[in-house]
């Protein structure tokens, strides 16, 4: 129904859902809305909304940190529904107030605290254990750079990825593997649409605390098999090197 990484206006969503005119607008203009057995979340990330509310919505790696309305809490039925797992929750986000929304995917809720107001829910999209989870783009400004790095101590050092940087890689280069050219959408249809790994040309583990990445020059889409083969050598093979072996 929706393609991860594609952008949509609310009117686009109305058309896709074939909503009659008298069901458009209204509660759809709020931050979250129930439609049948599904919920739709529309959120700004890093910028205030049109109502002037400025919630601390932001990305932590592949996880969206999201806040409900000002007085929301986990005792409210809507918030209970959102975290129940009984409803699909379609999550749309944008980083510019009047831009279209990017579709992040169907979110898996991680409630933050039962006493927090507004209610905070962390939305995961796929496994948090797989750092190459496919991600896509918000609008990208040509010439813009994105800071990556933000080292975090876990059991071993890992690097949090800037979602917008990796998103723009997919938006520019597409979802076909740069080595073997497989496109999972073409091969598996709707199931595989949009799936791809993103390879950093220079391994983040070899870079300092932060660096500035150009999503088009520094990142490249590759399939899981080719991604694994790139890292069979240390330092990793280049894309051209692996193409010669394929």
From TrEMBL:
It comes from the Bacteria. Residues 2-111 form the DUF3427 domain. Residues 177-233 form the HNH domain. Gene3D superfamilies: 1.10.30.50. GO terms for molecular function: endonuclease activity; nucleic acid binding; zinc ion binding. InterPro entries: DUF3427 (IPR021835), HNH (IPR002711), HNH_nuc (IPR003615). This is DUF3427 domain-containing protein. It comes from Aeromonas sp. 19NY04SH05-1. The lineage of its organism: Bacteria, Pseudomonadati, Pseudomonadota, Gammaproteobacteria, Aeromonadales.
